[in-house]
Amino acid sequence: MDKRSAITRRQFLKASAMASAGVFVAPQLRSLPTFAAIPGGSLPPTSIPKYVAPLVVPPAMPVTDSSGAIDSYEISVRQFQQQILPAGLPMTTVWSYGSATHSGTFNYPAFTIEAAFRRPVRVKWINNLTDSSGSFLPHLLPVDPTLHWANPPGGIAGRDMRPTFTSTPGPYRGPVPIVPHLHGGHNEEESDGYPEAWYLPAANNIPPGFATEGSFYDAFKNEFFDKRGVLWSRGSAIFQYANDQRASTLWYHDHTLGMTRLNVYAGPAGFYLIRGGADDLPSGILPGPAPALGDPPGTKYYEIPIAIQDRSFNSDGSLFYPTSRKFFDEFAGPYIPGSDISPIFNPEFFANTVVVNGRTWPVLEVEPRRYRFRFLNGCNSRFLILKLVINPTERRPETPSLPFWQIGSEGGFLPKPVMLQGLLMGLAERADVIVDFTRLRAGTEVHLINEGPDEPFGGGTPGKDFAAADPATTGQVMKFFVVPLASSDNSTPPQRLVLPTFTPLGAAVRTRKVSLNEEDSALLEGVGPRAALLGTLDANANAVHMGWDDPITENPELNSIEVWEIYNFTEDAHPIHIHEVQFQVVNRQEFEERRIRSPEAWESGFKDTVIAYPEDITRVKVLFDLPGRYVWHCHIVEHEDNEMMRPYDVVRQQLT
Ligand SMILES: [Cu+2]
Predict the structure, then answer these.
(1) Most exposed residue of 14, 124, 284, 557, measured as fewest CB within 10 angstroms of its CB?
(2) Which chain residues have CB less than 5 Å from ligand 1, an ion?
(3) Are the beta carbons of 575 and 382 closer than 8 angstroms?
(4) pTM of the full predicted structure?
(5) Is residue 449 a contact partner of residue 473, using CB atoms and an 8 Å limit?
(6) Residues whose CB is less than 8 angstroms from the CB of residue 224 and which lie 6 or more positions away in sequence, other chains included
(7) pLDDT tens-digit map of 310-320
(8) Cα(551) to centroid of ligand 1, in Å?
């Protein structure tokens, strides 16, 4: 751990923003008088009109075959153009998923997969990142080939490794590996989207010597065949999800080793909702409906998933993502030879616009009634603190005008509804909430704002411990515009809701200590961070840093319950995600402090991602009930891509 580098980095972010873009001073902001514009692409975010385009409610993904005992989908990843910026501004080239058997279903974010409890979903995931002549499409964004990454040019011997260079390389422009992951899914290992189970498109011009699949692709392909008698074909993988878990809000996105930040930023992500079973509520109790297959045009939805992502744009409409480490801290080299700093990779990235369900700052007409929103923080590095206010720019922190009633998190419903004035959301966290617009007059405008920081989050409150996001740009998210009531609302008011019975996990058989760490350059004084890493603790409670390729240290026994104590030795909060499981947050405790803090009220259900604060021990209790190889990682995807991810094994018999 080196605190100095983190502080330097934050000071730098602020200073460089002020130098490059001038200081935006909003005189009406009483608590925090100055905001630095966030650097980005050539399109200034303040030139983009807000609240002109309606929020897109992603339709249900068409099923390819549901005639048997499972729902089968064929889903491709393709490149296309979409109007993300308001009409009149250029379209944006993006990637996303869509049904290969249904035209018109490609959208960023992808259509929602609607899954039923205990009815398996099988998806053929096709890498269709090719042009009309069948040649591969290169990445939309600058791929840093010096990371420990998929590395297809390394061939069979060099794939999934950190390659060696004798001089600083440019970005990788070859065929793009993908592997989709169902985030929060109780997935068997071969269907989990392991970072080394990636595959290239079946293009006609793959350069000779390239590895066309990751190191784990064949093993999982064989495992899937052994279990289900179905073979994967080149350029695709078939995953099956049992949906044998609580009704919940999951999402799917890419998970390729060392490329997740770019593959997700380019677009591929969508919601996956599991309904039914004893852990769901009968229909009619909560606001609905949500989009379903076969809905007539104009169907009104009162249950809406809302994916919030930050993006930066160039004036031609293209997505902006940094092309050099210089963007992060002005470190311009030497890279190779002479240092251990990657030339293109940025340790975090904060974009300067807010994109909600694929549109910048959209507006949703709402009736004076209750709505169910399933929020997702789908940003790369940005923590969100959401509030509902009337005036989106008046001051920070702002007093909310309406509360959120949170009823669920990643693993389904909470034990009981929780009324909140703000929603703190780490990367990949979900909040299932009810917002009650009932008492508002037609014509009222309610704004969803963000008071999380335009920099790494370290805990605390806006206006006191950090400056809230720029009220002119990333401090605003979307607008709700109240229109006259069109239908009666028979949903149960949230304060009277009785949620499904919550059964906590039993006693743990083992406690495991793991660590979150950060490293500066080992070669150049004062340059850093180089990477963030996971690890363990030694007998003296010192951090042991471990990278992706170090031997496995977490090997819980099948069907055992463990407590993981996550020691965060870094300056920043990290959202820690464990695959395959939904865990309970036990408590938190500062280093050197005796006082133990209970989980937050909204952390009282099952979760798959938890915020680990700096110099804190975060304890989670986990049941590992599927055998095999999985990963746990930080969901700041820049961190995940540069060593802050580790494999773990659920073993049938505990190794000694
Ligand atoms: Cu992290």
Answers:
(1) 284
(2) 574, 634, 636, 639
(3) no
(4) 0.94
(5) no
(6) 190, 191, 230, 232, 238, 239, 240
(7) 999 999 999 99
(8) 21
